[in-house]
Amino acid sequence: MSLEIRSANIDLYKHKIHNWFDEQQAIFSVESQILQWLKDNGEDKDVLGNRSSSLLINKLIYFISERLEKTNPSLVISRGWYKYGPCFEHGRKGEESMSLFAFDKHKTVSRILPEVSQECEQQVPKYLKSLEKDGSFPYGYIHYIYSERCNYPWLQEYYLGKHRLSQVLSDLEHGKTKEKDIIKAFIDFDRAIINTKYQKEINVRQIDIDKILEVTALLSCTARDPENSKTEYFRNMRTYFTENVLLAFAIKNYERTLHTGTLGFQKLIAENMENNYKNYLQDIPDKLRFYYSLMPTNA
C-alpha cells in the first residue's frame, strides 16, 4: 500500500495562515501543483531522480510564495536566504543535506495556478540544462538564482563570491583551476565579507570577520600549491570552511532575511540561529591552531 500525502483542497488566493498547520496545508498545495506540472511536462523523473532536486524545489516554492503573497497578503509561507540562497523554512534542512522531498507521494491535482506554472517554466529548464553541463551539482542554475533572482541587493555580492569560491575549491581536485582563478575567487569572497554594508545588514562584528579572513588566508595559501591541494589536509580544511565558516554566514543571512507571519516563530528562529552562529565562531581559533600544526612543509 503506497503512502499518499493528502493536502486539503484549499484556495491559495483566499487561504489564511495563522499557525503551523495552515502553513503546512499551503505548502502541500504548492508542492502538489509543482509535481503535477513536472508530470504534465514529462520532467518529473529527470528532476526527482537527482539528489540536488531539493535545491530546485526550495527555490520554486520560495518564489511562488512571493508571487502568491502579492495577491493574498494573508498567505505568508515562512522563508529566507540560507546556505544555497532562497528557500522556505520547512525545506531548509532538507536543502542543507540536499535530501529529496517525498514529492512522488503527493496527491494529484487538477488545477495549477499561474504563479506555479510561471515559475516552473522559468526555472525547471535552467535547472535541467545546468545538470547536463555541470554534473550532479547545478552550478549554472545556482548562479542564475544569485545573479538574476536576488531580491536583496546587499546580499548578492556575498552569494556570487561564495558560489564562485565553492566551485573553484571543488574543481581543484580535478586539476581544472588555474592559480590566477584561485586568487581571484578568494579576493572576491573576502571583498564581499568585508563590505561594511553587508556586515551592518547581518550584524557581524569586525573581530568575527577577522577570524574568518584568517581561515580564508590559510585555505588560499594551501589551495594555490598543486601538491597540497590534493592532500587530505586540504580536503579536511575545505570541508571545515564549507560546513562551518560558510554555514555561519548562512545563519546570519537567514536570520536577517527570514520572512514569516508569526512573530513568536521569528523570535525562536533568531535565537536558535544566534546560538549556532556563536558556536561556529568560537571554534575557529582552535581549528586554526590545529591546521597550522599540521600544515604541509611546502605550503
Description:
The chain has 299 residues and is mainly alpha-helical. Helices cover 67% and strands 3% of the residues. The protein is built from 13 helices and 2 strands; from the N terminus they run H-H-H-E-E-H-H-H-H-H-H-H-H-H-H. A two-stranded antiparallel sheet has the order 1-2. Helix 3 packs antiparallel against helix 5 and helix 7 runs antiparallel to helix 8. The longest helix is centred in the C-terminal third of the chain and has 26 residues. The N terminus is likely disordered.
Strand order of the largest sheet: 1-2
Strand content: under 5%
- Rg (C-alpha, Å): 21 Å
Oligomeric state of this protein: single chain
- Tell me, what's the shape? globular
Supply the helix-strand structural class: mainly alpha
| Biggest sheet architecture | 2 strands, antiparallel
What is the helical fraction, as a range of percent?
55-70%
**CA-CA gap between termini:** 58 Å
Flag low-confidence runs: 1-5
Q: What's the tally of helices?
A: 13
Count the E strands: 2
Pattern of helices and strands: HHHEEHHHHHHHHHH
The overall pLDDT average reads 90
